[in-house]
């Protein structure tokens, strides 16, 4: 295999994103499907994947060859390896971290590994953040009557912090969670005068995607925090941010996501205060 051919999922993902603007329409379609549904790509048949993605089976071969693989089966191996790594148990991950600790400076090596991953994530988002998009998101959220916050699973701690901080800033908000299963009713109150912050990363939480889709259909503007232009959240968002988090020992950081969330929340509070002072002047 050519040395330039992606050998792991993260490299493959980065390659697809780098080339997305130049991909032919049908190949871009299967590329988006592949990043949104990597498990299906890993073990589906060419026929079943093509049917789900809405393309011809031959498009899968052309997609693989576009990325430098000799055929779709070779590409599929990268997706299978990703699934194997993702499905490793936490015990296995901890064992790997213990091995790193024994090879290095004890458990300090684990701490240093997580700090390094967090530092990488923060450095990457600092370079990549688009100032105009950030200002647009702040303006959109600052004028909202109520800010709805949607997230599940790994993204939930970020959503919880946003709701907490907005409350402290006396900004009306609604963290969409309900032990009674009333999420649909909660977002049913949202109007175009409100706004949404939706957060999800691959593998995307189905509930977050469906709730975002539903609230978008109500005409509510959405600010999304996700990890790809092919993310299902991006298609619903008025403004969206791509955040690539580094990991250590299979445990992925949320440092960059949290920094972005904190900055958005505080900036929204500042903009609302500025608007309030101008009205009183």
UniProtKB/TrEMBL annotation:
Residues 10-86 form the HTH rpiR-type domain. Pfam families: HTH_6, SIS. Keywords: DNA-binding, Transcription, Transcription regulation. Gene3D superfamilies: Glucose-6-phosphate isomerase like protein, domain 1, Winged helix-like DNA-binding domain superfamily/Winged helix DNA-binding domain. Residues 137-274 form the SIS domain. The keyword Transcription regulation applies. This is MurR/RpiR family transcriptional regulator. It comes from Mesorhizobium captivum.
């Amino acid at each position: 295999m050519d040395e330039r051919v992606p050998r792991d999922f993260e490299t493959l993902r980065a390659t697809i994103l780098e080339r997305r603007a130049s991909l032919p329409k049908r190949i871009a379609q299967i590329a988006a499907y592949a990043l949104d549904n990597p498990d299906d790509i890993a073990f589906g048949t060419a026929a079943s994947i093509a049917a789900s993605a809405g393309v011809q089976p031959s498009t899968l071969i052309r997609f693989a060859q576009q990325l430098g693989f000799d055929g779709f089966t070779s590409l599929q191996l990268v997706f299978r390896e990703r699934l194997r790594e993702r499905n490793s148990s936490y015990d296995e991950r901890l064992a790997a971290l213990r091995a790193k600790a024994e090879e290095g400076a004890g458990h300090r090596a684990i701490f240093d590994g997580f700090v390094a991953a967090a530092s990488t994530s923060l450095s990457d988002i600092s370079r990549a953040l688009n100032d105009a998009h950030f200002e647009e998101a702040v303006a959109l959220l600052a004028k909202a009557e109520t800010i709805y916050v949607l997230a599940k699973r790994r993204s939930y701690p970020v959503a919880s912090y946003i709701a907490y901080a907005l409350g402290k800033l006396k900004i009306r908000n609604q963290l969409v969670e309900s032990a009674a299963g009333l999420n649909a009713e909660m977002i049913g109150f949202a109007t175009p005068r409100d706004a949404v912050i939706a957060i999800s990363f691959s593998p995307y939480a189905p509930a977050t995607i469906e709730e975002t889709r539903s609230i978008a259909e109500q005409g509510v503007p959405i600010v999304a925090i996700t990890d790809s232009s092919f993310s299902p959240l991006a298609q619903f968002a008025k403004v969206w941010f791509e955040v690539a988090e580094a990991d250590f020992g299979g445990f992925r950081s949320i440092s960059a996501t949290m920094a972005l969330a904190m900055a958005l929340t505080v900036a929204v509070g500042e903009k609302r205060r500025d608007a309030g002072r101008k009205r009183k002047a």
